[in-house]
Design goal:
Number of domains: 4
Number of strands: 8
CATH class of the largest domain: Alpha Beta
Structural class: alpha/beta
Strand content: 5-15%
Helix content: 40-55%
Strand order of the largest sheet: 2-1-3-4
Bound molecules: iron/sulfur cluster
Radius of gyration: 21 Å
Largest sheet: 4 strands, parallel
Distance between the termini: 40 Å
């Protein structure tokens, strides 16, 4: 249900979006890619100028222009601070959709998007890859050399470590529920963050909710959407839209801030289903004081994902919830760089930029000498976890919901 216009209308729509930019440059300091290279072409203002020129037919889609547009993480830090309220997210998706008309997507991207249409295959592949023997084989020098021509060597090095806890939760109904909410599992997170979904179930049940987890749900479509593949995004998200509509829920809770925007602004836009960040929901006034937590003598480094800061905007709720755990000491990581480099499948396509951003974030974590690193998005959790492991650090990396559920005392 994406409302991006197509054909000739797309160019005038893009031009109108780009015309909103007054070129003030206030967005430059928050842009992670500008921070790395200090290049105008790698900044929001530069990319908007490229989009404007492309839409008006004044610039050709050269490889270097495409690269500058591709390097955008879609973190939306620029959109958050823009005084002219430029709808940058819509603009970058529309620009990439325009570019797709004249270029064939890379082989890796075609494979990945095909997998997103088959979330069961994706989950099965992740489960198999999580066996340590399979992981070691895939990361051996022979396998790396064999995978390189297909662009899969990086995938093998950055495989997520699946959460060991339990299976995918099923819908549960307390005797007298105070309400009914849907729980979104996601495609990758359904395997990698089973601890988060089991934890969400515990927290929501402790609050007295019936939690509906329709088995037919799949992907949110964000990866395809951010690549400008609007049709592919719609197709990937169709089972999810159908599953929750059939389940008859009017509130859908999301624990991955990276999926939140696409679910709220695209998949369920214009429907009766209200998409809410799970932290913001639990922290709601209506639930204040109802959850009790056991003490945890622990220093928590809190990473707030860019999608949490710029889109879901529930970072304060995450913090307030963690502060309810007695004895926990929370240390915030610096706001910049605003993105850890994961950004959906970005870390697989643009390793150099992603690794530079991750290295800075991991440095910031190490300086704090925490006992645990907490985040609220599956992509950041996986990417930062791998970054720490690659440095030989065995710091636990978890999700706020998993930590809260672990300490729940209701
Ligand atoms: S996107 Fe907004 S903040 Fe950035 S240069 Fe344009 S008007 Fe200024
Ligand atoms: S979305 Fe993020 S990476 Fe892209 S231009 Fe804006 S601030 Fe920079």
């Amino acid at each position: 249900m994406n409302r991006q216009p197509v054909g000739s209308d797309a160019r005038s729509h893009l031009a109108a979006l780009a015309d909103q930019c007054v070129k003030c440059g206030l967005c430059q300091p928050v842009c992670p890619t500008y921070r790395i290279g200090r290049s105008e072409a790698e900044s929001p203002r530069g990319r908007i100028a490229f989009a404007q020129a492309l839409a008006g037919g004044r610039l050709a889609a050269t490889p270097s222009l495409i690269a500058h547009l591709d390097h955008c993480l879609a973190c939306l830090g620029c959109e958050r601070v823009c005084p002219s309220q430029v709808r940058y997210g819509e603009l970058i998706v529309g620009t990439r959709a325009l570019l797709r008309e004249s270029r064939r997507p890379a082989r890796f991207e075609r494979w990945l998007h095909a997998l997103l249409l088959r979330p069961r295959w994706l989950r099965a592949a992740l489960l198999i890859a999580n066996f340590s023997v399979v992981r070691s084989c895939m990361q051996s020098s022979i396998a790396q050399a064999a995978l390189r021509p297909f662009g899969l060597d990086r995938v093998a090095r950055e495989l997520p470590h699946a959460s060991p806890a339990g299976s995918v939760p099923e819908s549960r109904r307390p005797t007298s529920p105070r309400g009914r909410v849907g729980l979104f599992l996601g495609c990758v997170a359904a395997t990698v963050e089973r601890d988060v979904h089991a934890g969400a179930m515990r927290l929501l049940q402790a609050l007295g909710y019936e939690v509906v987890v329709p088995p037919g749900q799949g992907c949110c479509g964000a990866l395809a959407l951010h690549a400008g593949d609007i049709g592919g995004a719609d197709a990937a998200a169709a089972p999810t839209r159908r599953a929750f509509a059939d389940a008859g829920v009017d509130t859908l809770l999301v624990s991955a801030s990276g999926c939140f925007a696409t679910l709220r602004d695209t998949v369920f836009a214009g429907t009766q289903i209200r998409v809410r960040d799970i932290h913001e929901f639990i922290d709601d006034d209506a639930h204040r004081g109802e959850l009790k937590f056991r003490a945890l003598d622990c220093r928590v480094a809190l990473h707030t994902p860019c999608t949490q800061t710029n889109v879901a905007r529930a970072g304060d709720a995450v913090r307030r919830l963690l502060q309810k755990i007695p004895q926990v000491e929370i240390v915030d990581l610096p706001a910049e760089p605003g993105c850890c480099g994961a950004a959906g499948d970005y870390f697989l396509r643009h390793a150099e930029i992603a690794d530079a951003l991750r290295a800075e974030k991991v440095d910031q974590v190490e300086v704090q000498t925490p006992d645990v690193l907490v985040t609220s998005n599956v992509g950041c959790r996986v990417f930062l976890d791998n970054g720490l492991r690659q440095r030989g650090k065995r710091l636990p990396v978890t999700h706020a919901v998993a930590l809260l559920a672990q300490q729940l005392d209701n």
